[in-house]
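User: Hi! I have a protein structure encoded as tokens and I'd like to know what sequence might fold into it. I'm fairly new to this, so please keep things simple.
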């Protein structure tokens, strides 16, 4: 799916342009289904940037892209866990993005990360208020507004389904907490998968500071899952 074109460029190309502008220490792309095609595309981007000397921000980071292979699709938590060997000596924070969310802007990500540090958080998730939250995980807060956990749509109670603050799937989390939490994630849910969302509750219960931050236009956060989504995304790009 990440190779589906949007405005003349595959979805993953838009995401990699964003990561290039953020100048990360390391970029890891998790691949699985038809991984060879994704790897070939990324390597062709690298060759293009070197040969044509285009977009130096991207060029400087393309050589640092690593690939983590998720042989079985066992959920988002399992996918992120495949990156652990590449970050086993890393003590900083990890920004987790989705390959099918191509409209996210640099300004939004930088604002999100800035607020994470302002909150002195260990883990932050980018959230948004939406009129029709069906299909998205819900941000659950207590009566005082404190962020508690994320509940996936298929596991949500009737009361939780009425929540209109949703999880974008974008996280910023300390590496030293991320992987220990992932090892504790269970797959006892409606889909039998290892949800990345479960690390929120795990880290909170172990005393970590968590936050859900609203700082994005919902149009930026929408994943591409249908031709209709592509059409909407194209309209957003051409605003």
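Assistant: Happy to help. Inverse folding works backwards from shape to sequence: for each of the 239 positions I chose a residue that suits the local structure. Here it is:
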């Amino acid at each position: 799916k990440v190779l589906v074109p949007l405005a003349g460029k595959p979805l993953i190309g838009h995401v990699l342009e964003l990561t290039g502008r953020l100048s990360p220490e390391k970029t890891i792309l998790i691949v699985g289904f038809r991984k060879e095609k994704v790897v070939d595309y990324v390597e062709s981007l690298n060759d293009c940037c070197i040969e044509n000397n285009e977009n130096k921000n991207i060029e400087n980071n393309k050589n640092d892209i690593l690939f983590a292979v998720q042989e079985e699709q066992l959920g988002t938590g399992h996918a992120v866990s495949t990156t652990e060997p590449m970050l086993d000596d890393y003590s900083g924070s990890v920004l987790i993005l989705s390959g099918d969310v191509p409209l996210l802007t640099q300004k939004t990500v930088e604002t999100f990360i800035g607020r994470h540090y302002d909150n002195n958080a260990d883990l932050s998730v980018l959230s948004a208020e939406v009129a029709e939250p069906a299909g998205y995980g819900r941000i659950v807060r207590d009566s005082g507004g404190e962020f508690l956990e994320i509940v996936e749509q298929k596991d949500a109670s009737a009361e939780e389904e009425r929540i209109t603050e949703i999880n974008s799937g974008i996280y910023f989390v300390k590496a030293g907490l991320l992987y220990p939490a992932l090892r504790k994630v269970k797959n006892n849910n409606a889909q039998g998968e290892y949800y990345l969302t479960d690390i929120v509750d795990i880290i909170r219960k172990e005393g970590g500071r968590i936050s859900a931050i609203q700082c994005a236009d919902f149009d930026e956060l929408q994943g591409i899952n249908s031709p209709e989504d592509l059409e909407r995304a194209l309209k957003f790009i051409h605003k």
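A useful reference point when you look it over: The longest helix spans residues 35-52. Feel free to ask if any position seems puzzling.
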